[in-house]
Design a protein that fits this description.
With 257 residues, the protein is an all-beta fold. The protein has one domain: Porin. The chain is built from 1 helix and 17 strands. Strands 2-3-4-5-6-7-8-9-10-11-12-13-14-15-16-17 form a 16-stranded antiparallel barrel.
Length: 257
Amino acid sequence: MKWQIMASVAIVSLCGYVACIQAKVQQKKPVITKRLVRWQSTGDSASATQLTKDTAGHITLVENNTEINTFRYVGDSILLTEYAKEAGRVVYSFRGLTDSTGKLLQGTAIAAYGSFAPDTVLHRFEYNKEGYLVRESREYGAAGTYTISYEYDGRDVVRILTWYNNELNNTKELGYYSDKANTTGLEDLKFRHNINNLVGRNSEHLIKTISSANGKGKLNYAFTYEYETDAEGLPVKLIAKKGKQVKAVTTYYYAAG
């Protein structure tokens, strides 16, 4: 299950989905527009992912080795589905309500990843005046409620706290490259990886470090990220390290938009 609250190495290594990927790069001559269309990962989270967009610029399909995710807009509503190739069925669906800018306000998800009864989860989202996600709640009925809060330093989220029934469950701390702009919209630690900026604006810079600790403060993991960029400053390679050991390498491919 790739969308659980407790992120796996595959998620934290930023080799999963990304948000609405489009970057406009100003050069001395014309303005060049590039958009991410595909990425290939090796290492602990080996995969190949392809994006499909509609004429309005929305990502409508994200497909990798194991699943197909679709995003369909109807007025102020959005329908998300996740189809598992091995199981041959839809294992996750979400119907949400958006505001006038396209940010999710609330929605209901039905998750059926295993052979047990599906979970029905009510999601609620809150934003600050700048349009950044500051709080998400996931209500599982009798099973309890997860609450996720996001703390920012300027325009970068630096701390993510996850609570279960008002008890601290997980803390993530993030550091950033001050000289590397988040031109591709990488934001892998928010709801559905913030595809199409579903939950507001992305952090302004690229992540340099991330650590995760449980509710008692015991370290779960710590990663460092290194990037290679092209002439316009767009990341073309991401190297995720645990200490000195390379855990995953992701190569990004762009096309003129």
